[in-house]
Design a protein that fits this description.
globular, alpha/beta, six-stranded mixed sheet, Rossmann fold, 12 strands, four-stranded mixed sheet, 11 helices, 60s Ribosomal Protein L30, Chain: A, single chain
């Protein structure tokens, strides 16, 4: 009895070590696939793709936050939404292994005549997430998978792209070189890891005719239908912000409704002063003239709040003395306070927060709104939630240091208030921030 119990205990501990990173996935909203068959029959959607191969990441990092279930759910919803068209299909799983006799990637379905049941059954066999992320191996093997396929091919990579075994981008380029214009690569990011997102963007760009999305942005039947249309058909494409530029080409996907945009989906800036036309109060400023945040020429320099930013450039003109400000004159705490996808403050940045606490204590009548902001990577709902959680974390820190809660409000603004372009890595870094805005309320 004692020996059996010991064996069971060891087995349970080993299992906990192997799968301990897994967490329960978030609850999924009910899904009833949109029916595209009528549009296909009416000729509104013209088929452009003859075959598809899904490369699904089942590595260890996908156990975190239920990402494996999110990825499987994406593939299942994608499967449910595909209309009745003739296709060849396949599914390849990638997951690291320490056993030299077990490959790190395996094709578990196809290439064969596509059937919904066949793909669904194959997805259901993927139960655990483990090991490194061998995307390079998976994409290299895809070159062999597709050898017997005629016509245009969609390769769909579903992953968080974390802890990859080598850079997968050269493999994606080799896949493109092997099949030329016949292959397009569509990357689907699971989660919101910044480095992973950049890798997935590069993978899609290697195909030169695909695009990158976040799995969270296909949650509704209409969103998934838009995705399926873009992969398989020539026809209607999803355009979340309604600016006339489809999401797969839109570098500024959260443009306010009604704003005129350029070919990249970004607000027009006719006079080139870096202030978009819809915010520019002086729209015909000559080229090269320095302007303030309203787009108007700078005619004089003052700095009423003494923060080192001229009044006509200062978007936060009442910053308390001693506060650390950004180029816009706003009291800012940067992204470095937080780990990826977390709202827990890293201990090494407590000195930065303690400095802000001192400012609050030197100004006992000061009340602030703690404002969380993000860049444009990831879904709007996710970024809204993340920005609010980070703002609340800063509020809790201040409260623990003796700042009365009645003097503070925590508000998340998500991706709606960028201070720099989201087209570049540097600009996105500036947009991931927490601002402390002096306010007055009863």
């Amino acid at each position: 009895m004692g020996r059996n119990f010991k064996f069971v205990l060891i087995f349970m501990v080993a299992g906990a070590l192997l799968f301990g990173c897994a967490t329960a996935p978030p609850p999924l909203a009910p899904f009833s696939a949109a029916d595209l068959n009528a549009r296909v029959k009416a000729g509104q959607l013209q088929q452009k793709t003859a075959a598809f191969l899904v490369i699904l990441d089942a590595s260890g990092s996908m156990a975190q936050g239920g990402k494996l279930e999110i990825a499987k759910n994406f593939v299942n919803r994608f499967n449910q939404t595909i209309p009745k068209i003739r296709l060849q299909a396949g599914l390849r799983k990638v997951a690291g292994t320490n056993n030299p006799f077990i490959p790190s990637t395996a094709r578990i379905y196809g290439m064969t005549d596509y059937s919904k049941q066949g793909l669904e059954d194959a997805v259901s066999t993927i139960q655990w997430a483990k090991g490194e992320t061998p995307l390079t191996s998976g994409i290299n093997e895809a070159i062999i998978d597709l050898e017997a396929i005629d016509g245009n091919i969609a390769v769909i990579v579903v992953s968080d792209a974390r802890s990859t075994e080598g850079d997968p981008v050269p493999a994606a380029k080799a896949l493109k070189e092997a099949y030329g214009d016949r292959v397009c690569i569509y990357s689907v990011l699971v989660g919101n890891d910044l480095a992973g997102s950049e890798t997935m963007v590069k993978i899609a760009k290697a195909g030169r005719c695909g695009f990158t999305i976040n799995a969270a942005d296909t949650a509704s039947p209409a969103q998934m239908a838009g995705y399926v249309e873009r992969v398989f058909f020539r026809g209607g494409f999803l355009d979340s912000d309604g600016d006339g530029v489809p999401n797969n080409s839109d570098l500024c996907p959260a443009t306010p409704k009604g704003v005129k945009v350029d070919k990249d989906g970004c607000a027009l800036d006719s006079d080139g002063d870096l202030v978009p036309d819809y915010l520019d109060q002086c729209p015909n400023t000559p080229r090269g003239v320095r302007v303030d945040y309203k787009g108007c020429p700078i005619s004089g320099i003052g700095d009423a709040d003494g923060d080192g930013v001229a009044d006509n450039l200062d978007r936060c003109p009442n910053t308390p003395y001693g506060a650390k400000v950004n180029a816009q004159g706003c009291w800012v705490l940067g992204e470095v306070l937080f780990a990826f996808d977390k709202a827990d403050i890293k201990p090494q940045y407590s000195a930065m927060l303690d400095s802000a606490v001192k400012v609050m204590k030197r100004n006992p009548d000061l009340k602030i709104e703690i404002q969380g902001h993000t860049d444009s990577i990831g879904g709007e709902a996710y970024n809204q939630s993340l920005s609010a959680r980070r703002a609340k974390a800063v509020l809790r820190y201040f409260a623990d240091k003796g700042v009365n809660v009645s003097r503070m409000k925590a508000v998340g603004y998500g991706l709606t208030r960028p201070v720099a372009t989201n087209k570049t890595r540097e600009g996105r870094a500036q947009n991931r921030r927490v601002e402390l805005a002096p306010v007055a309320w009863k």
